[in-house]
């Protein structure tokens, strides 16, 4: 999927690099803070959108949000780079439970990885 992807272009955005729901603090429906910025750096905002997309699988009510995230990611970086970001996200999500001995969590990550790649391939 990623074999022919060109190298990344310049990195124009500030990227959190671990943007997920529990790193966003909300009060009265408005974002008031983003925490845990230890991995922040420059890159493409599609990196953070891909991470958010990954976490939408946890709630069936977020399917529309996931579709909108895919659209935005593809508009920002195109299909090949979106495939690279999805593959990176999958590897990061697999690494965490394996490193912490939570092998029981790996099948769910693999299942979500298949869903992610199926959705991305459908948008090709």
TrEMBL record:
InterPro entries: Aminoglycoside_PTrfase (IPR002575), Kinase-like_dom_sf (IPR011009), Prot_kinase_dom (IPR000719), Ser/Thr_kinase_AS (IPR008271). Residues 1-124 form the Protein kinase domain. GO terms for molecular function: ATP binding; protein kinase activity. Signal peptide: none annotated. Coiled coil: none annotated. This is Phosphotransferase. It comes from Kribbella sp. HUAS MG21.
């Amino acid at each position: 999927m990623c074999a022919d992807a060109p190298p990344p272009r310049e990195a124009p955005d500030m990227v959190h690099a671990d943007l997920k729901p529990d790193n966003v603090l909300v009060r009265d429906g408005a974002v008031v803070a983003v925490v845990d910025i230890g991995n922040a750096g420059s890159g493409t905002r599609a990196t953070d959108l891909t991470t958010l997309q990954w976490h939408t699988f946890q709630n069936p009510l977020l399917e529309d949000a996931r579709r909108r995230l895919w659209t935005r990611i593809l508009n920002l970086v195109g299909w090949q780079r979106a495939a690279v970001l999805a593959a990176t996200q999958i590897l990061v999500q697999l690494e965490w439970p394996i490193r912490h001995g939570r092998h029981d969590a790996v099948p769910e990550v693999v299942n979500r990885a298949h869903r992610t790649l199926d959705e991305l391939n459908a948008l090709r």
